[in-house]
Amino acid sequence: MEEFEYGPVEILLISFEGDRPGPALSEALLDLVEDKTITLLDLVFVARSEAGDLRIVEVEELPDRAELPDLELGELGLAGLEDVEELAGQLQPGSSAAVLVIELTWARRFSSVLAASGGAVLHHERIPAPIVNAVLAVAR
């Protein structure tokens, strides 16, 4: 069985207040990386001015690396300019976000075994945490 170099990859657009994520969000991301739950392959910051102008900043262009000084990115440039611009179309004027390209490291071996056995994922759907928690809170 051939082991995959990468597991499934997801692209996330996450918003936050201000022009960069706060220390708690940065720490939570670093925890996921350190626990080998995810591998952060690429990270790009985007901001839309009140006038609607879009600013795109790669993490390595930031002087303090956005409070993520120890972060090693696996595949810089994986989030292409066209992808980032398309995702940034969701930003309202005066808002900021980050585009994260993450490998689901926890699923790498499972993906290799699934492919080797002739299996395939037929459907994948993510239910956002706020929705799950709200539904379960009402159900209790």
Number of strands: 4
Spatial ordering of strands, largest sheet: 1-4-2-3
* Helical residues, percent: 25-40%
Give the overall form: globular
Biggest beta sheet summary: 4 strands, antiparallel
Protein name: DUF1269 domain-containing family protein
Pfam families: DUF6325
Q: How would you describe this protein?
A:
By secondary structure, the protein is of the alpha+beta class. It has one domain. Helix content is 29%, strand content 23%. It has a four-stranded antiparallel beta sheet, covered by helices on one side. The longest helix is centred in the N-terminal third of the chain and has 12 residues, at 23-34. The protein is globular. The N and C termini lie far apart (45 Å). The relative contact order is 0.25.
What's the arrangement of secondary structure elements?
Blueprint: E1 9-16, H1 23-34, E2 39-48, E3 54-58, H2 81-88, E4 95-103, H3 108-116, H4 129-139
Antiparallel strand pairs: 1-4, 2-3, 2-4
Write out key terms for the chains shown:
DUF1269 domain-containing family protein, DUF6325, 4-stranded antiparallel β-sheet, alpha+beta, 140 residues
